[in-house]
Design brief:
Layout: E1 4-7, E2 20-24, E3 30-32, H1 39-50, E4 59-61, H2 67-70, H3 73-79, E5 84-87, H4 91-94, E6 102-103, E7 109-112, E8 115-121, E9 130-134, E10 139-143, H5 162-175, E11 179-182, H6 191-214, H7 220-227, H8 236-252, E12 256-259, E13 262-265
Parallel strand pairs: 3-4, 4-5, 5-6, 10-11
Antiparallel strand pairs: 1-2, 2-3, 7-8, 8-9, 9-10, 12-13
Helix pairs in contact: 5-6, 6-8, 7-8
């Protein structure tokens, strides 16, 4: 399968070097993720389309409704008004963006370039998160499910769910992809190793948090300080979200409970 990586030009503390978007050229050119509307991103998409057998952008598939993936949709549709903007619905977010969204459901088959992608619902980082799988090549476009050399934020206070995220990682393992193309960072050519590493890391973090609670570290802020060493100030809020996601998982399993904003083991 042919694809071209097109940078969204939005570097930052949470986006690293910036988002990756992917153009799949061919009979039905498709763009995966919308970026943020930077003019250089639009120019990159246009330049890639010139090299495609068809230069008409047919669809823009958004992996999930976070701003770095979806906010460029208005600029893209202004330039390619016949393109279909599509994503899995997230009603609380979707109306923030200048698009009339076409709904994608889990398992949907979508013509893309000269191939067909299957939508794979992988919630956890966001409730509407989708990956897109080219079964013929084994390539999986993974949005924010994974990133090489780092972990993924589970924003527990805004739609994140660690239980769902762990299930999504296991679902991806079961697909046996041969290459992952994430929205941040380089391609991943040993998907199984990375996903298993993610599962081990999350279990290790859970064990740390539970052990800390058992010795009296009982608030989210104290837990962040306890389990994260030398944390950059810009990443403290992300760490709080991650700790809270673990706490909500443990609470759902009836292993901890909250008492007036303090967490205790059961």
């Amino acid at each position: 399968m042919r694809y071209e990586l097109i940078h969204a030009h939005n570097p930052g503390p949470y986006t690293g070097a910036g988002n990756n978007t992917y153009l799949i050229p061919g009979r039905a050119p498709v763009l995966i993720d919308a970026g943020t509307g930077d003019s250089r991103h639009l120019a990159g998409v246009a330049a890639a389309l010139v090299q495609s057998p068809s230069t008409l952008l047919t669809r823009i598939l958004v992996t999930h409704g976070h701003v770095d993936h979806a906010s460029g949709i208005g600029a893209l549709l202004a330039k390619w008004p016949k393109a279909v903007a599509a994503k899995m619905p997230w009603p609380e977010r979707d109306d923030r963006y200048a698009a009339c969204w076409s709904a994608i459901v889990d398992g949907a088959l979508i013509a893309a370039g000269d191939t067909t992608l299957r939508a794979v619902h992988t919630p956890g980082h966001a409730p509407d998160h989708l990956c897109f799988f080219d079964e013929a090549s084994g390539i999986l476009f993974t949005g924010d499910l994974v990133v090489s050399g780092s972990t993924v934020i589970i924003p527990a206070s805004s739609g994140g769910d660690l239980v769902a995220y762990l299930a999504s990682l296991r679902r991806v393992l079961s697909l046996q992809p041969v290459r992952l193309l994430p929205a941040h960072g380089p391609a991943i050519d040993d998907p199984a190793a990375l996903v298993r590493q993610y599962l081990v890391h999350r279990q290790s973090r859970e064990d740390q948090i539970l052990a800390a609670i058992r010795v009296g570290v009982d608030t989210v802020d104290r837990l962040v300080s306890h389990v994260y060493e030398e944390l950059d100030e810009q990443l403290v809020s992300a760490a709080r979200e991650s700790v809270l996601a673990h706490l909500e998982k443990l609470r759902s399993e009836e292993r901890v409970r909250a008492e007036a904003n303090r967490w205790v083991s059961r």
